[in-house]
Amino acid sequence: MKKIVRALILSGVLLLPQATAFGWHDAGHMVVAQIAYLGLSPAAKREVDRLLLVAPDKRALVFYCDKKYDPITIAVWMDDFKSDSLNDNYANWHYINYKPLFDGVPERANVGPEPTNVLDRLNWLINTLRAGVEKDKDEAELLGFLFHLVGDVHQPMHTTTRYSPKNPDGDAGGNGFAVQMPAETRIKNLHSFWDSAGGQFGFDGVTRDAAGATRIRGFADRIMKDFPASAMPERKTLDVQQWVDESNTLARKVAYAKIKDGDAPAKSYTDETQKITARRIALAGYRLAEVLNSIYLEQPKPVK
């Protein structure tokens, strides 16, 4: 089964120009995971913990270089290994060039999603996990992909690209769309501005230690208070295509539409970005929990 899973993971993977896109920065991804973890059923939590929580003297099932992961930090595993050229095959898992924008250039009929994209991979991951995976290591890695990509697909800039005279071949989800920000933020383009959730988690990064875990829990608690699950019935919508459509609409009608290439984000734009991204992060966390709860039902799997 292990060879089959590896083959499926690598099948049909293509390199695309948007390979520089990272998705929510570490804080955003970990907040998604934290919200999801808090919403797990006992059965789902038992399986997630079994696969991702490792005693200090045990070898982790998922790791990269000297990094180990838990049910929260697992959400950044895909971005950790993304800088390794040996893993370039995973680049286009993170996004989908869906319903592109054409601004000042003629519309082109020959552009659109590549066969392998975040929509394709999420559907494959969910179906594979539901069918059951023989090896614990394979299952843990599939969870790592799932935790990350559910976050990515809820980031609006991961679902479209903009064609313009400046970027006739597309701007890779806003990576080629310049924004003016203070140098200390290290934000230079629209994609990264949205990855940072409009700066609502700060620009200093989050450490992966007890202090960082406390910060992530605080961010998650604040977002869940502002956007409680009870007020978001759409959290139960597990159709990945709908998730893509939602993000794409926000990218087209807000992210690109309310700022000009090269400008600094206005306060109103930043405020709207922060509100939208907080809601998308909440929704991603709730939906990830719903997916995991549907995969790991109350009947525990036998110990392997």
What does this structure look like?
The chain is built from ten helices and four strands; from the N terminus they run αααββαβααβαααα. A hairpin with a 2-residue loop joins strand 1 (63-64) and strand 2. The chain is mainly α and 304 residues long.
Features of the shown structure:
4 strands; about 300 residues; about 45% helix; mainly alpha; single chain; disordered N terminus; 10 helices
Structure in a nutshell:
This protein has 304 residues and is mostly helical. Helices cover 45% and strands 3% of the residues.
How are strands sequenced across the largest beta sheet? Answer: 1-2
Helix content: 40-55%
Task: Please report which band the strand proportion falls in: under 5%, 5-15%, 15-25%, 25-35%, 35-45% or over 45%.
Answer: under 5%
Largest sheet: 2 strands, antiparallel
Distance between the termini: 14 Å
Average pLDDT metric: 90
Number of helices: 10
Structural class: mainly alpha
Helix and strand sequence: HHHEEHEHHEHHHH
- How many β-strand stretches? 4
Uncertain parts: 1-21
Write the layout of secondary structure elements.
Layout: H1 2-10, H2 26-38, H3 42-52, E1 63-64, E2 67-68, H4 77-80, E3 101-102, H5 118-131, H6 136-153, E4 162-163, H7 190-195, H8 210-226, H9 240-255, H10 267-295
Parallel strand pairs: 3-4
Antiparallel strand pairs: 1-2
Helix pairs in contact: 2-6, 2-8, 2-10, 5-6, 6-10, 8-10
